[in-house]
Amino acid sequence: MSQPSALTGADNEVAAGERCAMQSVLDTIIWAADEPPVPASDNPIIEALTWGATHFIGLFNASGEALVGLATGILPTLIVLLTFMYAITTWVGEARMTRAVQWSARWAITRYTLMPIIAVIVLTNPMAYSFGIYLPERQKPAFYDSAVSFVHPVTAFFPHANAGEIFVWAGVSAGVLAIAPEKYPLLALLYIGTGIVVIFIRGMVTEWITALLIRRQGLTAVFDEYDREFARASERFVEAKSTKKTGSSVATEGTV
């Protein structure tokens, strides 16, 4: 009869040991919960990797939101403006557009205002600079300076002309749109008007600097020869145009 009591005593010892172990685990959990959190690693590489992992997807989320904003905002405007300008160019005709550019190149006031305006609006950036082909060599640097200085002011009314840098005008106008939206048209007029004044001044100053450098470097004879070649090329262009007109008239009369 003593054996069962011995077994019962052993079971009690096992149960007591299990209770002690569970109590120890619970005490450890409670102690860990009461402890302050373990500070993050001071290793800059680990911190950089942690930051990159945290914000990696945020970059693409922000990009997606920006794309949706462009698709519902400026992109339709750019597409419509491009289509409109192409339609006007087709309707006016390449020959008339060329004559308008050549006419505007005659005088300094139109060469550094009207000519770059037409170039930037019709051809957009960077093709606008190709209109310099209608100018002598000594005037090309000044035309480029005036045209490249107009690619930002033009976006106030014609964002298609320099769509890649529309953020410049967006940054200029953001404050006005937030505080006084009714002043936005006035700001756009002042922005493009100031741009026209600036490009004229830059064109005149650059032309003067170009002439000064030509004289200082002893290149007057070289540029005089460039001017004669330009005059001969212009004469050949006029003669070819007249011959083409005469041939067309003869062909028309023969048909009649």
How would you portray this structure in words?
The chain is an all-alpha fold. The chain has a domain at 73-217. Helices cover 77% and strands 0% of the residues. 16% of the residues are buried. The model has no long low-confidence stretch (mean pLDDT 78).
Note the beta-strand portion. Answer: under 5%
Overall geometry:
elongated
Written as H for each helix and E for each strand, in order along the chain, the element string is HHHHHHHHHH
Radius of gyration: 38 Å
Structural class: mainly alpha
Terminal CA distance: 142 Å
Give the number of helices: 10
Mean pLDDT: 78
Q: Level of helix content?
A: over 70%
Biggest beta sheet summary: none
What is the total tally of β strands?
Answer: 0
Poorly predicted parts: none
Short description:
By secondary structure, this protein is mainly alpha-helical.
Task: Name some characteristics of this structure.
mainly alpha; 0% strand; elongated; 10 helices; 256 residues
Topology:
Blueprint: H1 2-34, H2 44-71, H3 74-92, H4 94-104, H5 108-111, H6 114-123, H7 140-148, H8 166-179, H9 184-216, H10 220-255
